Amino acid sequence: MTSTTSHSPGTGSNGSPRGATRTGAALRWRVVDLVVLAVLAAAGGVIFWAWSNLIYPVITGASVAYPPAAGLMLGGWLVAGTLGGLIIRKPGAALLCELLAAIFEGVMGTHFGLTVVISGIVQGLGAELVFAAVRYRRAGLGVAAAAGALSGLFGSISECLLYYYEWPVAHQGVYVALATLSGAVIAGVAMWLLVRALRGTGVLSALASGR
Amino acid sequence: MIRPGEKVLLVGPSGVGKSTLLHALAGVLERRETDELEVQQGASDAPGGPEGPLGELLVDGAPAADRATVTGLLQQDPESGIVLARVGDDVAFGPENLAVPSEQIWPRVTETLDAVGLAVELDRDTEALSGGQQQRLALAGVTAMRPRLLLLDEPTANLDPEGVRTVRDAVEAVAVQTGATLIVVEHRTEVWTDLVERVVVLGAGGVEHDGTPGQVFGDPARRRVLLERGVWVPDAPAPEPVVSPATDGEPLLRAVGLEVSRDQPGSRALAGRRRLARRGRPVPEHLNAGTPAARPVDLTVRRGSATAVTGNNGVGKSTLALTLAGLLVPAGGTVEAQPALAGDTVADPSAWTGRELVTRVGTVFQEPEHQFLTQSVRAELAEGPRRAGWSQDRIDSTVEELLQRLELTDLAEANPFTLSGGQKRRLSVGTVMAAAPDILVLDEPTFGQDSRTWWSVVDLLADQVRAGRAVVVVTHDRDLIRALGAREIELHAAPSVEQPDAPAPLTTRGGGSWLERRDALTKLACAVALTVPLILSADPITSGLILLGELAALSLAGQRPLRLLLAAWPLVLAALLSGWGTALLAEDSGPPLVSVGPLTLTQGSVAAGAAISLRGLALALPGLMLLLTTDPTDLADGLARTLRLPARFVIAALVGLRLMSVMIKQWQVLVTARRARGAGASRNPGTVLAEWGGRAFGLLVQALRRATRLAVTMEARGFGSVVEARDRTWARPIRRGAADALLLVITLALAVGAPIASHVAGAQRFIWQ
């Protein structure tokens, strides 16, 4: 926090104009950002784990007749990325949050094993690109939905390569389309609503998203 | 101006900025906040005189935010003062961040733990400590940094009297030993008056009084002003009883030979028990709670009376209260609602529906946030009456009346989570009063409150007693018992139960199975080594061989492979289902096995499906094995030191993981607390889903609040700011030996050998082949 900048009033560090320092500071990671990111990732890991072990078997069971329909539930594995991006609003937040959540899920045990780390990077990258495109300044409903959708697009393509490589291409296409939609709704719109509710409780007041 | 070595008590009304001042002195405020603070405090705290319009906050002649001097900050919530999972590691965290050479850290750790009187093993789980012990541990974590300035922010507010005494003594010992300057903020001044030599009273305009404890607290007029502002002055006479409870009121609830236990039956057993009880059938023994914690209790709750449950820590006072309130089931004996309370429903409170419960017994938990269900104060107060099925007019008038009564009218539309501590406390009492239950059960309603909130809670409760309702409080607060004229029920531990203060059995972290003793990073490398060939190959022989190797390793970890797979059945099921999906969709080849309409299963597609299932299982086990045999702290050490991952990020991840597991343990408390408000009793799928969402949201809010406070603690302990994170030292040595090398070699042999064996057998298949 303040300890890394010069304290003399009126000037920022290195004698640079104060305004410039402030912009830089807005994108710098503080301890509270790191810890909150980790907590969000841990919560995301629990959600992912439940999704993999409790919801996935049910849904896949329901979609036995047409397996690509399971793409509709991919969004549940993408929530940490958009959540991290929307709440922390720093470069790398969406990617790191999704990756860390995937790692937590992996060690809790799923039939995806440590391959979740790859999924985490790919999915997180999808969300991160959208937040980076708006330079971490906007976090509205549209940005959230776009981040979720791109995350879903990236994620589902990687899954077709990693898990569903036996499927014909047409089925893979349907899977990717449904997963993108799922990402936009579950990881995008729903997380935007969650962040709005969290902001109402005041717990985000120490973060960029609570101000 | 505070001189070196001085011991100062800082008092003042809530919201005057005492905590902010401590945070600023500790150098953990952001620039923006520091500026605002200096506007308020500059004139009184700047030794060099105000400079410009802002003033300055100097510690040892340097701006506080520069952190030139080591300062230690202790916060109110014991949980927020602890960073890591093992006692020794937690104390070592501060010195590590200050880059103290690692060979000097452990002597410091033991010395500091001695100083605070915490005689537990260094590898004890920090979660297994009582509140008082946790707070002393947090103090040790601060003291180990050898601070010249010790800042304590209401260090005893969340503790019972025993904890308060031990923490105060520990602070005294540390202050004497180190000669550190001490600044304490606290409402309960009598704890500190004989330790400090100076009392500073802050008001809205800055310092109002400044003198010795005798000067500040001796003047009767000043005492009165302080009391009005919520400060507890020492040696105040105990409050007179404000109600004279009836002794012959109509009985509402009767407990006979009641034994209670936290060990509750599972949710399915509970549902069965509820069904039996609602039909008036006897409840079989096995549907009761587990081993009782306390001796059996007989008691009758009467109209217009107050009852206080007292006893030592951990003896089961809260459990008794929740059992009386119908939120837990007894371990033995009975709780029966008398006709005056039960009305048209069954006598067993634990079988009541949410609606029946909220109109009969209202329970207030120690943590108000556990019980908030809605987004505004008004909706929160209307919730109970709404569940009771009242008319809208009646609800509206009740809510208006309560808002005035609780002095929350101006905050009617505010989000409950944003209220101050005292306001939350009043609201939580108000929410259960709203549906006008005949019995109010409250767990430690006066813990950590300033004297104004204390009086408003006492007045609310006294009114309930006067109105002919019954109040049951779990408390350590003698003044509360006296003010309510409560009848005291002292709870004693069951003879078979060991005393909570007795040392718990040693944890087995040092020992453990062969695999558990191996180096954490080596195990991670092994898990990755096994995962790579699994990702790249799609044939059953590679997957099968690796799976066999993993099952053998599980035996080395002291696990029974079969039992583990049974316990992890969702994982197995998921692996099977993904195999099924592939069997359906894979290109048909070989002789058809099943053909129903568009569904075709051929030998080729079934084989592909089976391979996918096998691969899924083999992929799942390395991660699980890592989880079962590795301490996250050791893994984090390996990642940051050997792999040179950014230390700030790795340690934050470690802390986040610990915080989340702490929160998940609170899930059951949250379920019970929300049931007290009538939530979660419905079987309607939509309502069930909404209730799950509500709980998860509550958990997340509290986890984030904790994370924010913990970040302050970490920064106050020098994390990532005093020295660059890459220069910090590490207290724990990393030991890698021949056994670790052996493990790696065997694993690599398997990872390479399995695809080769498969290739020799002619089955090897690359994933995108």
UniProtKB/TrEMBL annotation, chain A:
Entry keywords, A to Z: Membrane, Transmembrane, Transmembrane helix
Domain of life: Bacteria
Stored Pfam families: ABC_cobalt
Span list, region Disordered: 1-21
Biased composition, class Low complexity, residue ranges: 1-16
Chain segments annotated as transmembrane: 31-52, 58-80, 114-134, 141-164, 176-195
Positions in coiled-coil regions: none
Protein name: Uncharacterized protein
Organism, scientific name: Kocuria soli
